[in-house]
């Protein structure tokens, strides 16, 4: 996940300034489609992730503006964390 976040930052988020939320979301959809369908991945022998699936050619499209949250999600407090059992 950390590697993906770094790639997302270097190849999408910090590449340019976006003039609107709609433009930013469209650019994210384009990046994710490129990342999954065309960009070579060293862990996959230079193939894109879509090469690991059969019969799928999905594409990501963000055509609706994000919906506002009705409530703000609460963060998990340290004392709420469940201790693993042995």
Q: Secondary structure elements and their pairing?
A:
Blueprint: H1 2-13, H2 21-37
Characterization of the model:
The protein has helices at 2-13, 21-37. It has one domain (2-64). It is mainly alpha-helical. The model has no long low-confidence stretch (mean pLDDT 80).
Uncertain residue ranges: none
Number of strands: 0
Q: In terms of structural class, how would the helical and strand content be classed?
A: mainly alpha
Order of H and E elements? HH
Mean pLDDT over all positions: 80
- Beta-strand portion reads under 5%
Attribute tags:
extended, Integrase catalytic domain-containing protein, 34% helix, 2 helices, mainly alpha, 86 residues
Q: Brief description of this entry?
A:
Residues 1-49 form the Integrase catalytic domain. The protein is an all-alpha fold.
């Amino acid at each position: 996940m950390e590697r993906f976040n770094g790639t997302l930052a270097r190849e999408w988020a910090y590449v340019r300034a976006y003039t609107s939320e709609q433009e930013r979301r469209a650019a994210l959809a384009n990046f994710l489609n490129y990342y999954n369908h065309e960009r070579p991945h060293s862990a996959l022998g230079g193939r894109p992730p879509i090469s690991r699936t059969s019969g799928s050619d999905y594409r990501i499209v963000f055509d609706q503006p994000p919906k506002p949250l009705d409530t703000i999600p609460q963060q998990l407090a340290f004392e709420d964390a469940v201790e693993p059992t042995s």
